[in-house]
Write a structure and sequence with these properties.
The protein is built from six helices and three strands; from the N terminus they run E-E-E-H-H-H-H-H-H. By secondary structure, it is α+β, with helices and mostly antiparallel strands. It has one domain.
């Protein structure tokens, strides 16, 4: 699979259209700052794999994409990003990981590994535990 990107500069904002293979229909369109768009395209081309920690929020957003328990709906940008990542092959997912490493790892785990979805569900549960915990330790009752 080949990922091709096109940037349409609209002043302070740019549209990054992502295409896979020879398909004339885009996988997704990302709306971001012009500087962010240029950095995104450059980092995809560089393909530098980082070390990553998948947060409970990221795990929950990827789970939601797959319709799994523990999921949480993301905003439109992250939803489009996750959709594009699910359509990318492993090499191109690695390229996308240079800009959004936690999402790329979470998509890879959910899509390409036997126990990845269960692992993401365990990580997403941490968000629920954190949300249920009092913000101020003084608020805890014995």
């Amino acid at each position: 699979m080949i990922i091709k990107t096109e940037i349409q500069d609209q002043g302070a904002t740019a549209f990054v259209t992502v295409f896979a293979d020879q398909d004339p229909m885009p996988c997704g369109v990302l709306v971001m700052s012009t500087a962010g768009a240029a950095e995104l395209v450059a980092r995809i081309a560089a393909g530098e794999p980082p070390e990553v920690e998948v947060t409970p929020k990221v795990a929950a957003q990827v789970l939601y994409h797959y319709g799994l328990t523990g999921g949480m709906q993301a905003g439109s940008f992250i939803t489009a990003l996750i959709t594009a990542m699910t359509k990318a092959d492993r090499d191109h997912l690695l390229r996308l990981s240079t800009v959004y490493p936690a999402y790329a790892v979470a998509v890879y785990l959910a899509r390409d590994t036997e126990h990845g979805r269960g692992w993401l569900q365990n990580v997403a549960k941490q968000r629920l535990v954190a949300d249920a915990s009092p913000a101020d330790p003084a608020e805890e009752t014995s």
